[in-house]
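Entry type: protein chain
Record version: 2
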Amino acid sequence: RTFETRLKEAEAAVAVATASIQLQTASVQRGRATLDKAQADFDRAQSLRARGTVSDASFDAAQAALDVARADVAVAEAQLTNARATLAQAGEVRQRLASVARGDRAHRGQ
């Protein structure tokens, strides 16, 4: 691969990582909204259960939905952390290649 190709690949990797961060940020936000609803549904089911007006199956379903929503948020947050690390690494590679490119031009009198 030529140096220019490697630099273009690094720039593309930064663009992909940036897009991934945007996607993962949206996933975290969606997951948190789902978690908020699942928490409200569970709280309602718990209150109704205390009064004896909700079935065990409905209560269990609300508990399961809450557990799933918590897990989904944890996964989305982990993926966002990974995307941020990927961006940092891709940005570092791009920066190093760009620095070398500037140095090459200076040495060649460009």
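Comment: Residues 106-110 have pLDDT under 50 and may be disordered.
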